Amino acid sequence: MSILFYKKPDYRPKSEGPLNLQKCQKYVERTKDCKGAIPSDLSFERIISNKALPPCSLQDFIDYLAYVTNDAENLQFYLWLVDYHQRFRNAPAEETALSPKWNFDDPQSSPRHSGNSGYSAIGGSDKTLSILGVKDFDAIEEEDISNASLLEDRPSPYTATLGTLKFAEIPLNETKPPDGQNRRSNNAQPFRAEINRIIAHYIAPGAPRELNLSHKDRAAVLYALRRTTHPSAFHPIKKVVDLTLRNQSHPNFVRWSICNGNKPWTIFLRTFAVCNIVIGFAIAILLTLSRASRWYRILAALEWWFGITNLIAAYQGLCVLLLRRHTREVRPWEIDEQGRRYGSSDEEAALRHSKVLYEETKSRWPVKMELFGPPNAWDHETWMDRYSMKSIFKKTFEKEIPTQDRGLHFMQNKIVRQAEAWALIITIPLTVFFTALPKGNMY
Predict the structure, then answer these.
(1) Over the chain, what HEC string results?
(2) pTM of the model
């Protein structure tokens, strides 16, 4: 009986306002309620470590966040933090000694105990701070800080399996202290230049890819980053982003991935299913009113069962035909002008190994794949104009590409079996009812 009441993961709407641990806990509670809805093959760990296959790979996850929910900055920052944690561990001990662990449990670690705001982590000049949109420093310093445990100092299980995603790394000692300056200054800390850019792009108010953080967490992290570049300084952000990705973005992504057709195709499929049901009723009524044997009315059951099956599956965003062929329709953003995804391999390789700052050169790669850059907006990408110019026919009957992930196939097959079972339950009473009616003998 469980097949009749199987439910795909529930949709989890975004919380209004800045995120904190209390709001993220609501995501956790909702995830516990439908823990069995997502198979282990599609777990967050497998997707984030790039072990899941298309259309549930890490690249597909990034695409979903970039083009569907418009919050790719969470995953971009998370992948960077995982990579940064590993690089910091592998840095020379004499370098990492300059950036001690940060303890958020220590009352002296609060911005309110210092006369300097944490926003001066990027240099401290009024000009730089004004560029980042920081104005009311006194209000920030008065913020209290929630208790938080340290980021555990251990190798990440994801870092070694992040696939081919490589972000531009800043050389360890890119910023050299002037002669005679104390080497233990902020500029001498390992990865200081890279941390400054992360602050400017993700943490500071008004940043191009500003993370949705509470004022309390933002102030605490910026205060910590002013004094150290140790990964533990990111713990409040890491915890919020991790809980959001695991318990809100990930279930929504799996739910969205079940759909193997675009919106125009889904609308067409639902219309087609309704037409089959209507044809079934027309056959049953016409045969009932005629002198034909009542057993011919059973033919209507085929139309009813087929139409109801497709209607229930289409309601879940699933096309039975595409599932049987192990394919799905391509998304509008997946093919560029030359029919290649995300550009040439030479361009991709150059971007992976490039250490040139984004401000100095702008790549042609979609912005979602760049760690640093403008906001994750895609309204400037060329595929939008091409897609808007397509006819309804071409949008409906898009190109198909294979689906490979077994975990996704398992969920899709379960939904189809459920649709077939409910269609049978509905079709049998309808068939019995029309078959039992007396002949109309009208023609």
Answers:
(1) CHHHHCCCCCCCCCCCCCECHHHHHHHHHHHHHCHHHCCHHHCHHHHHCCCCCCCCCHHHHHHHHHHCCCCCHHHHHHHHHHHHHHHHHHCCHHHHCCCCCCCCCCHHHCHHHCCCCHHHHHCCCHHHHHHCCCCCHHHHHCCCCCCCCCCCCCCCCCHHHCCCCCCCCCCCCCCCCCCCCCCCCHHHCCCHHHHHHHHHHHHCCCCCCCCCECHHHHHHHHHHHCCCCCHHHHHHHHHHHHHHHHHHHHHHHHHHHCCCCCHHHHHHHHHHHHHHHHHHHHHHHHHHHCCCCHHHHHHHHHHHHHHHHHHHHHHCCCCHHHHHCCEEECCHHHCCCCCCCCCCHHHHHHHHHCCCCHHHCCCCCCHHHCCCCCCCCCCCCHHHHHHHCCCHHHHHCCCEEECCCHHHHHHHHHHHHHHHHHHHHHHHHHHHHHHHCCCCCCC
(2) 0.76
